[in-house]
Amino acid sequence: FESSFGRLVSSPHNLLFNSGYVANLSVLSSLPQPGDVLLLDEQVHNSVWSGVKMCRATDIRTFRHNDAEDFRRKLGEIP
User: Fold this and answer.
1) With CB atoms counted within 10 Å of each terminal CB, which end of the chain scores lower, N or C?
2) Confidence tier at 20 by pLDDT (50, 70, 90)
């Protein structure tokens, strides 16, 4: 099925997940590495938190829900 989907979207490489929860869990538990900073909306879905809890990044920060100004301020604090 993955190869058929790859042809459909013109991509030889792809990953398919059976749900958003599994996608968040899989990607967020494996991609962030030591030294990475994660800046998350404080009300992000539980599946994101579940994935982040298993990742190797140690600097995990939040900003106020849907607050672009707080996001910009927190982003500016990251070295």
Assistant:
1) C
2) very high
